[in-house]
Amino acid sequence: MKKIKKIGIFILAASLLPNFVFAKGFVRENNFMNKSGVEKRDEIKRWQARMNLPVTGALNDKTKEALHTENYEVYDMVTNPPTKGKWIVVNKSRRTLTMYKGNQSIGKFPVTLGTNATPTPSAKGKIQNMHKNPAWGGMNGKYKPAKADDPNNPLGERWMGLRLPGASGYGIHGNIKPHQIGGYYSNGCIRLFNYDVENYVFPNMSVGSPVWIGTDNELESWGVYQYSRVKKEEAKQAVGEKAPVEEKQEETKATENIENIPAEDLLEF
Q1: How many CB atoms are closer than 10 A to CB 212?
Q2: How confident is residue 257, by pLDDT bands cut at 50, 70 and 90?
Q3: Which residue ranges does the record assign to the L,D-TPase catalytic domain (predicted)?
């Protein structure tokens, strides 16, 4: 009898557990919870990019943490922007493209990058040319060329050619394989969802706009920090208590030397 009672209590507790978890849970604003299939996957990728998370399209642990943690912070810091105007940063670690105006982020999008065999180069460059409905040459005979508006044209409907030190042929463009967004599949170019490049990125850029491409550590060394983390609680000080002079000096020193702080201490993901 006791055994039956214990089993009954366990079943009751198990049935109440999901309700308890969700009743107390916080859910950050998003555009994918009410979707399914491919549409949900793509919106998760866009949300991950906006949250400075590595883009996967899956509700992994880090994504769930950002989704359900109220005390979570996401922001960018750029210490030395190359222009007061609009420019681009491509984060190879997170598979994201961020548009900036000066040091302010004005849009983030998921991207596809190059494979290990054909990697996207790390460099500081500029947009060299821009074309709507571009034709594709097939990489000098490696592939069959495609005309403008050809549904098999891997460039999609927009192309922004890049001028990079010691490299040529790379660009930011649309795609015909949206399921690959968030991965390393290209021949080195940076692919965006067609909607994103056509409606946001291409219209905001111009020939000559700076483009920085690098990993988290490389971008950090150039003064670009992209935060995504649970906010660390600040130590509360007793009312009327004055902070020691040494503490204030250390705080000032830390701020002045922020570029020397290891990336792993700033960029948590």
Answers
A1: 23
A2: very low
A3: 86-214
173 is catalytic: yes
Catalytic member of 68, 131, 173, 179? 173
Report the pLDDT value the prediction gives residue 179, as an integer from 0 to 100.
Answer: 95
Q: Is 77 helix (H, G, I), strand (E, B) or coil?
A: strand
Residue 131 appears among annotated catalytic residues: no
If you average pLDDT over residues 141-145, what whole number do you get?
74
**What are the tens digits of pLDDT across the range 174-206?**
999 999 999 999 999 999 999 999 999 999 999
Q: How far apart are CA 71 and CA 123, in angstroms?
A: 35
Which amino acid makes up residue 99? M
Spatial contact of 96 and 169, defined as CB atoms under 8 Å apart? no
The answer to whether 230 and 71 have CB atoms below 8 angstroms apart is yes
Q: For residue range 59-94, what is the model confidence (pLDDT) as tens digits?
A: 999 999 999 999 999 999 999 999 999 999 999 999
* Closest by CA position to 151, among listed 123, 121, 124, 176: 176
- What is the rounded CA–CA span in Å between residue 113 and residue 126? 18
Do 170 and 181 form a contact (C-beta atoms < 8 A)? no
Kindly state the DSSP code that residue 223 receives in the 8-state scheme: T
The arithmetic mean of pLDDT across residues 53-63, rounded, is: 97
Q: What is the C-alpha separation between 210 and 82, in angstroms, rounded?
A: 7
